Amino acid sequence: MEMPAALPCTAGIGLRAPHYREVLRDNPDLGWVEVHSENFFDGGAPLHTLLKVRENYPVSLHGVGMGLASTDPLDEEHLSSLRNLVDAVQPAAVSEHLCWNAAGGAVINDLLPFPYTQAFLSHVAIRVEEVQEKLGRRLLLENLSSYLFFARSEMSEGEFLAELSRRTGCVILFDVNNLYVNARNLGVDAKAYIRTLPVDAVLEYHLAGHSIADGMLVDTHSSRVCAEVWALYEFALQHIGPRPTLIEWDNDIPELGVLLDEAARARQYVEDRHA
Question: So what's the pLDDT on residue 261?
């Protein structure tokens, strides 16, 4: 199975529609960009734009709709569209979320958690292997922000990811903000979680901002990375090492310069660890 092509070990941004024109025009100093795969399934002008961006930057395809932990059958149309996109773009990485999103034929537009049990581990492993076989690539799987615990869980999310990687060869996209949200909302021991991750399997970091609603942190990707997440990122860099790092911003999207500023800060963290 093909390993993900190497993203440069520097910082990139999540590229969203409001910034397409500026990025193409100005070719700013960016290590790489990530886009949501589903936005390009229909081809046309969005795909044409992405292919133009691909001429200047490595591209990572980040999926939000596969629902690898769902118990409904895998959506073959979705998977076929993703395979066609991968063939067209030849991305440096293809990632998905460790979540479910469908039941009884109904698809839910959310990234939903599930209990971390041996039964679910076997179920998800089969589906990951099927997707990897059809794409001809190893997937990066992302940890979730969550707002509840399952009493049935038999292991932590970090332990689940580590064993899933061992069984399937998939690799890990470690979202630092998601872990911080879970630490604040659910009392997860963030540093212990990081220590459970197999260092060689972590190939990418995500950083983002969040908001507060009813006393809980919500993973809205709507603000700058907070000081506490930067500190947790620094701990991850110390324990795991430098990896390609993405700044995500999906709501209340600011001008491009704000994202470039956040990416420059992440790049400095990475360069400091390399020094």
Answer: 98
